[in-house]
Amino acid sequence: MKKILLLFLLFSVSVFAQSQETKKPERLFIKTFEVKEGIPATLSEYFRDKLVLYFFQEAGEKYRVLSEADINIMYKQAKDLLTVGCDAESCLIQIAYAIDADLIVYGRIEKKEGKIHTFAQTIIRDRKTNELEKGSVVEVSFYQSQLEWFAKEIVKKLINPKYLIDTSKAPTEVKIELEMKELNLPALKGLNISILEFKTDDTTIGMILDYSKPLLEEGDNYFKSRNYEIALKKYQQIIEKIETKLPESRQTKLATFKSSIEDRIISSYGMYFKARIEKEDSIAKQGQYENALSGYEDIKYELNQIKDKYKTGLNDLYKVLSERLDAIYLIQAEYNEKQGDIFYSEYKFNDAIWKYEEGLLFLWKIYFKKSPEYKNYEAQLTEKKEVVNKTGYSYFKNTIKSYCEWIDYYNFSEQETKAKETLTTARDFMLRSRWVNDSDVREEYNERAKILQETEITGIITLSDTSKMKNVGGIEFVFIPAGSFFMGASDSDLDAGINEKPQHKVKISGFWMGKYEVTQEQYKTIMGNNPSYFEGKNRPVEQVGWNSANEFCEKFSKKYGIECRLPTEAEWEYACRAGTTTKYYWGDKISGDYCWYDANSNREMHPVGQKKPNRWGLYDMTGNVWELCNDWFDDKYYEKSPKDNPKGPDTGYYKVFRGGSWYSIANGNRSAYRNWSSPDDRNDKVGFRCVLSSANK
Fold first, then answer.
1. What is the CATH number of domain 2-169?
2. What is the pLDDT of residues 393-433, one digit of tens each?
């Protein structure tokens, strides 16, 4: 047994001797606490997980946290140490040497007087003298509902022995279940119509009144029977007749009559929307907030289409609807925050960040967002997001380094199969993480991949999340989360044009973007024609100018009752980069794996979705066809661009398009590259993709 241990110690020295020269983080091992009677083993494991989590949070850059799995081999080879002639502390000392640890945390957890009693101790290794000494000692009792708070305080104490745990600040109660605030739904006032009687000596006007009389009677009858939609049509027919058959000079003679009809239209709209709002109210009161939200937002969209024309009469209704939306937005923000907290506690850092971002998205939609209460809540969510991002990154780096050390061990001991299996596990873990493109970690992984002659990680891999996708009218949309990024090209990018600079930070609200460029089949369904030169139903539509693309969005919006539009230039680049800062969204060198361009396109356009997507699941963001944006072009716009959701200049002569095409050289496919043309220009290299506003969630 001693020989086995000696060999392992020699291996440890050989594996880690070199790394100690370059690795700054201290090697920390947190042993699962000894369980006494009254404490389930699962609670001890949960407690250890919390300690690990808070070590990452409080000092993620300082420590390289070793898992139980990291030292599993050591346990197998030196297990006798734990059972033969060895007390717990002496065993831990030998463990510290065997796994080359700088710090070990161990202890026990038991039940005392209805509380959880915890004893935690550290053993510190001095690398200069190679001596061990006891460090911080923590001994506290708490209720199970206070476990997370005390776990964090224990970590602070273990890191800094002088730190004092103030138990008076411990939470008295932890809410387990999600609680949502009850909606305060103000009552809607009813709207009435008045009786009309008009006389005139003007023959033409008399004919219009004769035409209007039966429509007016029908409309009033439908109104009284609560068939407000049909009543509206009747009243609108009268208004249309007046406006199309009479010049403005003669319309003045019917001003009072026309005003009365418009009052009826306002009343009809009011009662129609009132009934719909009340229906959604009943859904909201049942706690079905997401369904109610969708209904309220649909009503708001419809109100916005007619509100300006009948603004005075519908303002109160709009205010009532806005109050309801604010209440639901706040509920949804709180819900996403709670979900984020749960994911964080489960080490699901990607999901947690998504939830906090979605919570912020809902907050940004609230009308009272300038209030101090909103700002405080926004700051709270933003802080949580930043903490999780920092903690998750530390956890990610730590885990990959752990896998790499395992690979080194297996390779050293000539266990090639296990080395490759561990490499695969590490690869899968990396590709599920938002930090997959961290250059240091990727390089460390790729070094092992080269040794084992396995696939290296060279680009971005999509984070699969079907909950972030939707299908409208046969077009697949992917939700792009809110966030900030540096727009434009850096000074170090020698391929960049002057209109791509200066690089500047931009904040983008969440939105939905087409997974693919709009295809010829999709375009024909809406527009009734296919103008493309390179025909193929799954190929992107081309030979469309900005005006035609915008018309497509308008007709698509009307058909499906949603807000569909072209992306802003900022939204496009943010979605294209998907969190990257390199020239292309996969790296700094052109790659035919991700785009069709002049070197691999065979001088023609190709069906969508044949190349690898970017990290957010968007295909063909560069190459195949240029993609039209909503903005007017200004080569100096970046010098004065707003920081929040820039929409481009107010006017201009040319429209922006981005992303390169099948005809473009490599440089034109960079994420920052800008191009422009007249709104009416059409050619076989330009197409588009659609976006939906965040309100269409």
1. 3.40.50.10070
2. 888 888 888 888 888 888 888 888 988 888 888 887 887 77
- Alpha-carbon 573 to chain mean position: 16
For the chain, the residue count is 697
| Closest of 566, 592, 594, 591 to residue 658, by C-alpha | 566
CATH (one of 3.40.50.2300, 3.90.1150.10, 3.40.50.300, 3.90.1580.10) for 466-696:
3.90.1580.10
Q: Which of 245, 280, 238, 281 is nearest to 259 (CA)?
A: 238
Tokens standing for residue 70: 């990291």
Give backbone dihedrals phi and psi of 110, rounded to 5 degrees, phi first: -150, 175
| Cα angle for residues 421, 49, 123 (degrees, 5° grid) | 95
Instruction: Catalogue the E-assigned strands of 432-582.
Output: 469-472, 475-480, 483-487, 504-508, 511-514, 564-565
Is residue 127 over pLDDT 70? yes
The three state secondary structure string of 211-250 is: HHHHHHHHHHHHHHCCCHHHHHHHHHHHHHHHHHHCCHHH
Q: Is 565 helix (H, G, I), strand (E, B) or coil?
A: strand
Output phi, psi for 600, to 5 deg.
-135, 0
**Which part of the chain is CATH 3.40.50.10070?**
2-169
Look over the chain and give the mean of its residue pLDDT values, rounded to a whole number: 80
Average pLDDT, stretch 225-247?
Answer: 86
Does the pTM exceed 0.70? no
CB 55, CB 136: distance < 8 Å: no
Alpha-carbon distance 501 to 639, whole Å?
Answer: 8
Q: CB-based burial of residue 366 (10 Å sphere; 0-12 exposed, 13-18 middle, 19+ buried)?
A: buried
CATH 3.90.1580.10 in the chain: give the residue spans. Answer: 466-696
With cut-offs at 50, 70 and 90, classify the pLDDT of residue 363: confident
In 3-state terms, what secondary structure has residue 55? helix
Q: What is the pLDDT of residues 42-89, one digit of tens each?
A: 777 778 888 888 888 888 778 878 766 665 555 554 444 444 444 556
